[in-house]
Specification:
The protein is an alpha/beta fold. The chain has 13 helices and 15 strands. The strands form 3 sheets. Strands 8-10-7-6-13-14-15 form a 7-stranded parallel β-sheet, sandwiched between helices. The radius of gyration is 20 Å and the shape is elongated. The termini are far apart.
């Protein structure tokens, strides 16, 4: 099997060197070249014909967004952004995802070398997924197995560390419906596609999207801008109301609890589940336990299996579940795993998710 041909584009010689060393660990990736700016990168793309690019945002001669915009218009390629964990970096990275970047990896400002090496498994996995991802009509293929062994703590943490499993099917016929939505890779754009087609009379939506904490405010703002519903970052013990969207903060699990006939957001600072915080499995389990058959579960594009077990628990509790189909997903990991577990009622294209939701609203 041919190696993934990778071109690294970053104005920092240190970052180029470290990324090269990280990717050289993988038997499946070959760094065919590096470039200090997009002008050099443009020539190397023509000469080296890479399969995937990693792309910095702030570079000399041409910024990363301008380069990405031109690339996606003239020669679409899978791109993984390398971004700073700041609010400014978050806003620009989300714009890059709008332009067609597959995913991003954080580039913290302090202790860059050590941090990037700690993230080696994540970076390699994202490049592998990008190589197989759906980019402007390219066919999606399943994610390869990760190169590195997952740490013991990450491997063992399931939703059980936050909430015990559902023990009985629950029906709550006297309260409003809730829509619970989970997503990961490709999810920021997929979520906007769904919510822009929902009226402000739609039942409340709770969302767990895998994002760093610094990205939460920018993402909520983007969603609020395109939706007739009101969108906010979920606050601890905030009442959940129809016509509103509540997004889990990037460093907390979002749990739905009940107070009589009311639904309430509860934030939990427990350990990562399925290596994620927020974890979709945690949110889905809480919805299964406390909303039952009054819930609609939605799983959009995403890498891995987070949320698959929780979606099955929601179905067992009487919820109606909808997943995005493989053809329209950037990565059919999370939706595909939910399908395999038998937790799905409907499989629809991204453009049809909103309409399917509205047909299920009671």
């Amino acid at each position: 099997m041919a190696k993934i041909r990778l071109l690294i584009i970053d104005d920092s010689a240190l970052i180029r060197k470290m990324l090269t060393e990280i990717f050289n660990i993988s038997d499946d990736i070959e760094v065919v070249g590096t470039a200090a700016d997009p002008i050099i990168a443009r020539d190397k793309i023509k000469k080296l014909k890479p399969d995937v690019l990693t792309l910095d945002i702030e570079m000399p001669r041409m910024d990363g967004l301008t380069f990405l915009r031109n690339l996606m218009r003239l020669r679409p390629l899978p791109v993984v952004m390398v971004s700073t964990l700041t609010e400014k970096g978050a806003a620009v990275t989300l714009e890059a995802l709008e332009l067609g970047a597959i995913d991003f990896v954080a580039k913290p400002k302090m202790d860059v070398s050590n941090t990037l090496n700690e993230y080696a498994e994540d970076i390699i996995a994202k490049v592998k997924v990008a190589a197989k991802a759906h980019v402007r009509g390219l066919p999606f293929k399943p994610k390869p197995k990760p190169v590195f062994k997952v740490s013991e703590a990450s491997e063992k943490h399931t939703a059980d560390v936050i909430l015990s499993a559902v023990t009985a099917r629950k029906h709550f016929k006297t309260t409003d419906m809730i829509i619970a939505l989970g997503a990961s890779t490709g999810g920021t754009e997929a979520i906007k596609t769904v919510v822009r087609n929902l009226p402000n009379t739609t039942p409340a939506i709770v969302i767990s999207q895998h994002l760093p904490a610094a990205f939460s405010a920018s993402f909520a703002s983007h969603v609020n801008h395109v939706s007739a519903m009101k969108c906010c970052i979920a606050q601890n013990y905030q009442q959940i109301l129809p016509g509103n969207i509540y997004i889990a903060p990037g460093d907390m699990h979002l749990i739905v609890i009940r107070d009589g006939a009311r639904y309430i957001c509860q934030l939990n600072d427990g350990p990562p589940v399925n290596r994620h915080k927020p974890a979709v499995d945690v949110m889905f389990r809480s919805v299964a336990q406390n909303v039952g058959s009054n819930a609609i579960g939605i799983m959009l594009t995403g890498m891995g299996a987070d949320g698959a077990k929780g979606m099955k628990e929601m179905k067992d509790a009487g919820a109606i579940n909808i997943i995005q189909d493989e053809a329209s997903s950037v990565v059919w990991g999370m939706p595909g795993e939910a399908f395999k577990l038998g937790g799905v009622d409907y499989v629809v294209s991204l453009d049809d998710v909103a309409a399917k939701i509205l047909t299920q609203v009671k």
